[in-house]
Design goal:
mainly alpha; 3 helices; membrane; transmembrane
Length: 82
């Protein structure tokens, strides 16, 4: 950022928070699938909560939507209010 004061700091914070939440959720889902793969390899069983999360398609799209909305919103604000 520059030394100027941003026109909409709360809106920028909102979009950056959306991006951060999307990244955290995506990383948690990735780590859960790795843990599930290791668990399945060693025991032959799967963790039910991980398979439930994996099978819900709307959660995949929700994570992707959070990332896209957050990144696009941040870029638009930074470009428009330099």
């Amino acid at each position: 950022m520059t030394n100027k004061q941003l026109a909409h700091p709360k809106l920028l914070l909102f979009f950056e928070t959306l991006t951060a939440i999307g990244v955290v959720v995506a990383l948690l889902r990735f780590l859960a699938s790795i843990i599930n793969a290791i668990y399945k390899h060693t025991t032959g069983n799967e963790l039910t909560f991980v398979t439930t999360i994996r099978d819900n398609a709307w959660q995949n799209y929700l994570t992707l939507a959070l990332l896209i909305i957050g990144i696009i919103g941040t870029r638009i604000l930074k470009r428009r209010f330099k």
